[in-house]
Specification:
With 701 residues, the protein is an alpha+beta fold. Helix content is 13%, strand content 28%. It contains 14 helices and 31 strands. The strands form eight sheets. It has an eight-stranded antiparallel β-barrel with strand order 16-17-18-19-20-21-22-23. An eight-stranded antiparallel β-barrel has the order 24-25-26-27-28-29-30-31. α7 crosses α10. It starts with a strand and ends in an 11-residue tail after the last strand.
């Protein structure tokens, strides 16, 4: 957005590249948009479900005026007539739950009292105070967005996503069941914890995994079996609902403040630690269970109901709980009454980085390569001005500039202090977009920059010549200014006549490919009319090899010629105020000013007429300040098909510029052609504007 500094009002909005999938772009406003979804513009779903997760608080959102809702879910503990009761509108305090990977894992809420996301629609009015519910289309967009929220890499797993066997349990303490309370738990073995979890009958006759199945911790849509035998304890498979709702298991023997509780997922328990009543200080005020009443993971797994035998058992189970998210468990579930819910989570290595400044690769790099070769993740590499994505099928790193793929050894051989290589592990399937082709159009980012197309726009794939001054380094002293106006490309060629005096020509034609040609015109000033007289001088053509290199061919009269031209790079660095373009006075067309800015350098070429009304030009250079004077130089040089000579430099007067914006300026000219008396082109405080489109630098996108 462009905002005025005075009134702070938005006056313009520029559409920029957004790589996010349509589901995120279209639906996230219903999750984050306070003005979109609340009565006073102060609340949204994300106010409590921060980043799609939770605020770690318990809220009592019961409704005394609400109605009972009949139980309509899969009660997996309906043995001995112990049925799940109907849902009471007064439910007591409930911890905020995460939105991560909930779609397809219905029902929702701790009690399972919401069939699907559609049943939360009334909350936009009843809880957030909005005037209306979401429409069916908006609700679907909201659900499609929610379906994209997944679990991040687990920070407690090893780089290969395996469970840790010696996890230091700092901040976790004994509960007093086996030894004095408040002592450090020490080190936990999550692999052994998994053995207890899946085969230890810790809640005899049930394994933990009978209810809390791998890899999510949720129950199945189906029967609950006891232990290792397919003996039904309760529940049955239910058909999906009208909106595709699942019916994962709900238990009726929670034994806490609510009888019926949906078997909860346990992939984010590591984010809930910090409350421990064995310590004098805690980092959180709520713990575990639906109401946060159990302070620590250790306290939960050490309750008398579970048949653990030592603090080491507790430590191993705590280690498992911390490392639970990530799937890839080295164990199977016990017999289940239906398919175990799958988990939308992320490999533990994603986000891992290693920067190499010497050819000898680190061990960590070898581990990254092994994971990428196995297809578990993708691997990308970035250098200061280059990028690569690893292709597991060819075992090569594919460069972003379209060059030849390289082996790992070849790539690492180029590492050094001046060329550090940063390797980053990214999710499988995203290596190309995050490493070499951000807009997914099949052209590498550096290849696009080289040809002038936008690496942040999938619709921009054609070669686009760079705007600015071009020259031939082998014949320095003449050149042309290349600019665009819509689909048209036009050049102002600054060169010399046979006698070495400066002259200029212009050519303009539509540009649609890497080859361009146009009629070359010469201009004379008519002081009686105040306009120019145009005559054809020949033709000009350009054949571009990339955005900054071209073969320039011309024919003036019967004299042809050709030479290679390239963009004149005045200075490195980002241009904060880019005035590049062909500027003119709309009230007096026929003369003007070429400006080329790069970094903090500005080059100006004034094209004007002498006392005999012949076209002349002068060039000057200055810094890129918003206002200032440029001393101009005139030159005596060589004609287009003459041998190159170093131009003779003469005084060419000066111009003054004051920019009101990137597209408006005031010009004062005393530019002069010294080869003829009374040839000063004098203009005072003339309002000028660009005839050309704004120059673009896609390297900063």
């Amino acid at each position: 957005s462009t905002i005025t500094t005075g009134s702070l009002e938005e006056i313009d909005r520029l559409q920029v590249f957004n790589p996010l999938p349509a589901a995120i772009r279209d639906g996230r406003r219903f999750f984050y948009g306070t003005h979109e979804t609340s009565g006073l513009g102060q609340l949204a779903c994300a106010s409590c479900h921060v980043d799609g997760r939770m605020d770690r608080l318990a809220w009592d959102l019961g409704d005394p005026s609400g109605a009972m809702k009949g139980f309509n879910q899969n009660c997996v503990t309906d043995f001995d007539g112990d049925l799940c009761p109907d849902f009471h509108p007064m439910k007591g305090p409930m911890m905020t739950q995460t939105f991560q990977d909930i779609v397809g894992h219905e029902p929702f809420h701790w009690r399972g009292d919401r069939d699907g996301l559609e049943e939360f629609n009334p909350a936009f009015k009843g809880l957030l105070g909005d005037d209306v519910d979401l429409t069916a289309t908006e609700m679907q967009a909201f659900e499609d967005f929610v379906a994209t929220i997944t679990f991040p890499p687990n920070p407690f797993r090893n780089l290969d996503n395996s469970l840790p066997t010696a996890l230091s349990l700092e901040g976790h303490f004994t509960t007093g069941r086996f030894s004095a309370a408040g002592q450090p738990l020490g080190v936990g073995n999550a692999v052994r914890g998994l053995e207890l979890y899946t085969g230890g009958l810790l809640d005899d006759p049930f394994h933990c995994a009978n209810c809390h199945t791998l890899p999510t911790g949720m129950a199945v849509n189906g029967a609950l079996f006891a232990g290792d035998l397919p003996i039904r304890a309760g529940g049955s498979q239910m058909p999906t609902g009208p909106h595709g709702e699942n019916h994962l298991g709900v238990i009726s023997i929670d034994g806490s403040t609510n009888r019926s509780i949906k078997v909860p997922q346990i992939r984010n328990v590591y984010e809930k630690v910090g409350f421990d009543l064995t310590q004098l200080e805690s980092n959180a005020g709520f713990g575990f269970l639906h109401d946060g009443s159990i302070d620590s993971i250790a306290r939960f797994v050490a309750v008398d109901a579970f048949s653990i035998e030592s603090d080491q058992d507790v430590a191993d189970l705590v280690a498992l709980m911390l490392a639970f998210s990530g799937s890839d468990f080295p164990a199977e579930n016990p017999p289940l009454g239906g398919p175990a819910p799958l988990s939308q989570d992320t490999h533990a290595a994603v986000g891992a980085q290693a920067t190499i400044t010497a050819p000898d690769a680190k061990v960590e790099v070898e581990e990254m390569l092994a994971l990428a070769r196995g297809g578990a993740v993708d691997l990308v590499v970035h250098a200061p001005a280059a990028g690569w994505a690893f292709d597991a099928q060819t075992d090569r790193f594919v460069p972003a500039d379209g060059g030849a793929p390289m082996t790992a050894d070849q790539l690492l051989a180029g590492a050094g202090l001046a060329n550090p290589l940063t390797l980053t592990v990214v999710p499988a399937g995203l290596g190309d977009r995050l490493g070499i082709d951000r807009d997914g159009d099949g052209l590498g980012d550096q290849a696009e920059l080289k040809q002038g197309s936008n690496p942040a726009d999938a619709a921009s794939t054609a070669l686009r010549p760079a705007q600015g001054l071009w020259f031939n380094p082998a014949r320095s002293g003449h050149g042309f200014d290349l600019q665009r106006l819509g689909n048209f490309l036009f050049i102002t060629w600054y060169t010399y006549l046979d006698d070495g005096t400066p002259t200029w020509y212009q050519a303009a034609a539509e540009y649609s490919s890497s080859n361009w040609s146009a009629e070359l015109n010469r201009f004379r000033w008519n002081p009686e009319t105040g306009f120019v007289e145009v005559e054809s001088a020949g033709t000009a053509s350009l054949s571009f090899s990339d955005a900054t290199h071209a073969d320039f061919a011309w024919e003036i009269g019967e004299r042809p010629g050709a030479e290679p031209f390239e963009l004149l790079l005045a200075a490195p660095g980002r241009t904060l105020r880019d005035y590049t373009g062909t500027w003119y006075d709309p009230t007096e067309p026929g003369w003007g000013l070429t400006l080329y800015t790069k970094g903090d350098v500005r080059v100006g070429v004034m094209y004007f007429y002498d006392a005999d009304n012949e076209p002349r030009w002068a060039l000057g250079q200055s810094d890129n300040a918003p206002a200032g004077e440029i001393d101009m130089l005139s030159f005596l040089g060589f004609c287009p098909d003459c041998a190159h000579v170093a131009p003779e430099i003469l005084d060419g007067g000066s111009i003054g510029l004051e920019f009101e914006s990137l597209r408006a300026a005031t010009l004062t000219s005393t530019v002069d052609y010294p080869g003829l008396e009374n040839s000063t082109w004098s203009r005072v405080d003339v309002a000028i504007e660009p005839l050309s489109d704004p120059a673009v630098d896609f390297s900063v996108y």
